Amino acid sequence: MNRWISGAALLVLTAAPAAAQQTPADVISFLVTNQSVQTRDFEKDQAAAAATRDTITRALLVNLAAVPIATSSSGFVYRLDPELGTVTRVSNSFGTLFVERAMTSGRGRTSFGASATTTGYDRLDGLNLRDGSLVTTANQFRDEPAPFDTESLTLKIRTSTLTFFGAYGVTDRLEIGGAVPLVQLNIDGSRLDVYRGESVLQASGTASASGVADAAVRAKYRIFSTRTAGFAAATELRLPTGDEQALLGAGRAAIRIMAIGSVENPRVGVHGNFAIVRGGVSDEYDTSGAVTVAATPRLTIAGELLLRRLTDVREVVAVSAVHPTIGGVDTLRLLPGSAIPTLSNAVTGIKWNAAGSMVITGEVRWRLGNAGLTAPFTPTISVDYLF
After folding, report:
1. Rounded Cα–Cα distance for residues 134 and 155 (Å)
2. Do the Cβ atoms of 286 and 278 come closer than 8 Å?
3. Among 152, 162, 292, 377, which residue carries the largest CB count within 10 Å?
């Protein structure tokens, strides 16, 4: 044990400062690599560390490079009334938050805006990242209830995002737009060894990155509509503009094809989306729904449910293997499992017509399930203007 403690002290003095200069992916890899638990299988340790690093970075990229962007349409929707020959506002509602509605802003209408959000992630597939309970490697006697030697990870991940977006009504049916997110990512972590109740700090590392994440170009076409219902199709192309090494981008383009249905009267609207995504961080299937209520002519309340099933991302689990040299001992390592995660969030918010055609949105995205890298809640405030 003394030899392990001496080695740990050396790592703290020599390795931690070097890790602080590396990219976010490098720091995560460094912190999940076993250095003190005597597994006698370096290759498995390295493979497990690489797999855990990839799982964490992919989960982070899902939130940075492939996170859903706020609805493309402005809060105001206008359309030419053929009977009156004038352009009139279609709905008293200022629309949805992330879920798309079938309506478009109208021919010649241009909207632009910006949104700001900050997120502090605290769980990975339900495992706490902040309290030191996330064990990455451990040795355990089969006749004992708990491991006698563990390495655990503490990881603080915070992102702040400023997104600029805009849209233009080419016709009453066709709307095009785009969004450019700017991201600040901060990672701060440490690795702790606990042997028979005695704790030793193995290493620590910090990293940060900032810049443009993956930008989006999108279009929506209203296929048909009545006074109370509508159906539209939309597409979104995510461009690989973010730095993949800094975990700001997926490294390859992604395309989303979406079907949109809406039923809406002057006060209440119900909206549903189904989308297929190919490329980017992972292929996925998305389902979402929203209810909007025009509480007053200047205030809309919205609630949404967002579901994303990722086909190329796996949940992280502890896998046991027989220790090669110590009888009666199993070694546990974190590895990707076989389950395909479904990310689930609820969103609540309000849209307020502050002045003229300016709409201010305040919303909170809430964690529902444990899959993926998650935060208990994520607040966002945005402003958009139509002219």
Report:
1. 9
2. no
3. 292
Residues, the chain: 387
135: nearest Cα among 316, 358, 329: 316
Q: How confident is the model at residue 269 (pLDDT cuts 50, 70, 90)?
A: very high
- CA-based angle 276:277:283, to the nearest 5? 115
Task: Give the per-residue pLDDT at 77.
Answer: 66
- Euclidean distance between CA atoms 39 and 49, whole angstroms: 13
Helix 24-32 vs helix 42-64: crossing angle, to nearest 10: 140
The pLDDT of residue 69 is 80
Q: What pTM does this model have? A: 0.86
Q: Which residues of 95-112 are buried (b: 16+ CB within 10 A; e: fewer)?
A: bbbbbbbbbbbbbebebb
- Helix-then-strand count for the chain, H and E: 3, 21
pLDDT in tens, 287-335: 999 999 999 989 999 999 999 999 988 888 888 999 998 899 999 988 8
Give dist(CA 247, CA 25) in Å, integer.
7
CB half-sphere exposure, 358, CA atoms < 13 A = 7
CA separation for the pair 314, 150 (Å, rounded): 24
329: tokens are: 């001992």
* Nearest alpha-carbon partner for 286 in 97, 30, 128, 67: 67
Q: Which helix (H) or strand (E) holds 377?
A: strand 377-386
**Using one digit for the tens of pLDDT, what is the confidence trace for 181-205?**
999 999 999 999 999 888 899 889 9
Tokens representing residue 41 in the block: 């299988």
Structure tokens at 115: 């949104």
State how far the Cα of 138 lies from the Cα of 147, in Å rounded to an integer: 6
Angle between helices 2-19 and 24-32 (to 10 degrees): 180
CB 385 within 8 A of CB 357: yes
pLDDT of 166 reads 92
Residue-wise DSSP of 148-162: SEEEEEEEEEEEEEE
